[in-house]
Fold these 2 entries.
Entry 1:
Amino acid sequence: MIRRAIFYLFLLMGALLFMYPFLWMLSASLAPETELGDLVLLPSEITLQSYSQVIDKIPIGRAFLNSLIVSLSIVAGVLVFGSMVGYALSRLRFKGRQLLFFIIIFTMTLPFQITLIPQYILMVEFGWVDTYLALIIPYLMNALAIIMFRQYFMSIPQDLIDAARIDGCNELQILFRILWPNSIPALLTVGIITFMASWNEVLWPLIVIRNEDLMTMPQLVTLFAVGGRAESQLGAKLASATMLALPIVIAYIFFQRYFIQSMATSGMKE
Amino acid sequence: MARKYVHLTPYFLVMPYIVHFFVFIAFPVLFSFFLMFHKWNIISPMEFIGLHNFYRLINDRLFFRSIFNTLIFLVIHVPLQIVVALFFAEILNQKIRLRGFFRAAFFLPVIVSGVVVTMLWEQLYGFDTGLLNRMLVSVGLPKVGWLIRPELAMPSIAIMATWKNVGLYIVLFLVGLQSVPPQYYEAADLEGANRWQKFFYITLPGINPTVLMVLILSTIGGFSLFIEPYIMTGGGPLNSTLSAVLYIYKQGFFYYHMGYAATLGFCFAIIILLVIALQKRFIERESGN
């Protein structure tokens, strides 16, 4: 009994080790600036002063909107195009299918360090620097998503597809009207991984966006923290970090199981 | 007519991907080969300089420094990651209450942006007001310059990265542990094997593929390290946290040495692929025995 209690106490301390910094961030962002020296979790009064400072100093609302537009566009693109290729690879016969599959696997193993500089130059040549296009278009295709769709579609009975074909559906209708409604787990998994990756992406925006009104949230918060505009006001820094973390954490609370499963399967594939 | 339509559909479906592949992957890879032999700052015309970029690379102290820094990161990050993740995975693999809660708690740092995590740990590592130094002072020990001392800065970042990622590896190890057939343990029990014997002779070989995955993901992670040093140290002190990607970034977007930055990117990519291939061979040989 006592062993059991110690065991749980230990586990609880472990869990606290991973949650405490976030709880501290939240409480410190709500505390008056004078109380930030303490690392206690409950401030004497709750104030939104730090948040209003952030809103005054940087276009954080605009950045939130930019991040949302960019992430949702990428998710939509990856789901539509990824499932199209996944469907062709898993269910249709055509010349070059093997080669295409090989290419997709190859792009998964290609380190991004090699394409970083030439992709930036491409953005300059296209005139896409400081536009949404630079943030969205390069991410519209994702090899991992294609592989996951291919895998999932292979488990769907051929009868379902044949029946739809007899009813006169074309391939696009089969994909979006028959396969999609039967592939909700795959759509959620791919959607969550893609949303998380694009919401948290910071290197690429730092490279292609200089106009503050087009910056994504992680980028703006980073530049706020390192660029000196936070004027070493810890409360404001932590408030901006909280605002950046909040949307993902809220999504995580609702889709917790899917988050963990999605990340685990994506790790497996690599 | 209908037949021909069916015949063309697959190509219609994969066409967006193929176009995207040529524009954003195939062309950039080819273009990076081209860039490696040139000097270019994007504004003035490109200048062919032959193998000069490679000559410069093998004489570049910072290039080797960034590889060394990545190795330091990996030497600390990989074993720590495996030990901590395996430890918690073993615990969570037993019948315990609130398993979902604990799993969710460990996983929280995985989903949050590295920007947030780095900003938080910057406060923990702070010299005067950081939590770690306050704890040290309160038990009568001297303050430590976690991010100030060159020999400590990269290890500090490695510990932070472990904290951020360990939840993912706990989940991966949990999957791995559950794939070990329970009969093996039952047979071992009959033979009178103790806990440690069971761990070393059954569990560990059983999760070899997971260990390989952790190794590969950590290697990729180490060579992709960017935002952590960018926010915390800017690559300092004395270049001790200059990572591979931060160095490419500096050459490309501080100095606009596009040719040299492309050369760096190419060489780092080769190194990553080589290291991963070596790890694969090593682990496969181990599990062959």
Note: Chain B has 13 helices and two strands.
Entry 2:
Amino acid sequence: MMEAIRPFLVPHRIILFLIFVGIVIWAAVSLRWDWLPEYALLALEALWRTIWLLAASVVLGFLLAIPLGIAQAIGPWYLAWPAKVFCTIIRGTPLLLQIWLLYYGLGSLFPTIDGIRETWMWPYLRQAWPYAVLALTLSFAGYEGEIMRGAFSGVARGQLEAARSFGMPPFTMFRRIWLPQAIRNVLPTLGGETILQLKATPLVATITVVEIFAVSSRVRQDTFIVYEPLLLLALVYMMIAGVIAFAFRKFEQRIPSRVSRN
Amino acid sequence: METLLQLFGLTESAQLLSLSEPGWGANLLRGLANSLQIALGAFGFGLVIGLFGACGKLYGGPVTRDLLAIYTTVVRAVPELVLILILFFVGTDLINKASEALGGGPVEISGVAAGIWVLGIVQGAYSTEILRGAIQAVPPGQIEAARSFGMSPTLIMRRVTIPAMMSFAVPGLANLWLIATKDTALLAVVGFSELTLETRQAASSTRAYFTFFLAAGFLYLMVTLLSGVVFKYVENWARKGQPKLRGAG
């Protein structure tokens, strides 16, 4: 414990820390926080929605990125080429544009299809969150597909040849040898990518999904208080980013690797 | 051309996108020009911040280093959208306060200037990290040799460090430029008439959402692809005289 805090026990850091504490006390006393109780419940719900959006899009996007990565790494040209085009388009255009294209574009297209109002899909197609999940998932898949391509090509050839020479069927080889090592290759970048994805979630507030950013905008519009909700919002995002970074570091430590142990 | 458009049923889209009055093509292009202007300005402003930030992180005192660490960490952990709103309000407040103090009235701030200020500060954090890494990758012997010849720190920076670090910095900076062009779209949320907002206005007044959003996507993609070509040249130029990387490109 002492080892962990020793770097902070130097004079200039103590002074910086005291200044920071002073700013926090000043913010708590002289800024307006009277709106907080009224919006607390809404904010918690919205926070949950942000985390849920993040988790769903990361998991689904990663599952989609695996075939995208394989197609680009070893696929024949008729699979590799579309995968590459998809990744280039996703990475080459702003996410906000993609979200609006899906929500306004697809959203205006569906009602023109005959009989769609009677199907089970209609209640979902009328809401905003399916489009938000879809757009965020595709975006994560696009960025991650490119990374997975490198990860799959980065697995040592000898490993795959050894598996093949033992007579492993291709799917077992993929499941037991290739995928685990590819995931180990991307793990250090995956934490950063997840934080980038967290930073992309507030964009869905523009298509009426009520997540934590939307709540801060609503407070600003209702009460004309500008800075307090935004500062609190920044703090919330920093805390989530910190938790993600911490979780990935813990997870990484559990994976045996040859370099980092001594 | 006409028959080709008719063949694919695109006559209507072509009319909507045409550059003359009933079409919205001119609006989109004006938005693109605004976007590029903001992206260029923000990228340049960010580079200036990054150069000072990198020098501060490497050669500054302990307080400077800690403050810069807080700056880069906070900017990289908070969503750009939130930072844009905070910096936008802070910037307008500060300028209005200053103008009041000087006895003037409230000031109308141009969207381009505000966009450059806001995105530049965000970009500055990223380019600080990129340039710091690049300066660290310069062999220390070169800088020590320059110092032993009695060069002043600014001269070392200009003649030795910056030219030698260019080849390490260019790939990261190329990525950062692409982020800058895409981040200009976020300014649509604050109401600047850059490409994404112009597109949305065109789309919602004509109800042709697919046509306009796809057209804007195409424009952004062209910017990305062209930038890729340009940065390849820049990288070759920055790496001239160095051995070829194996399997690069």
Note: Residues 62 and 225 of chain A are 39 Å apart (CA to CA).
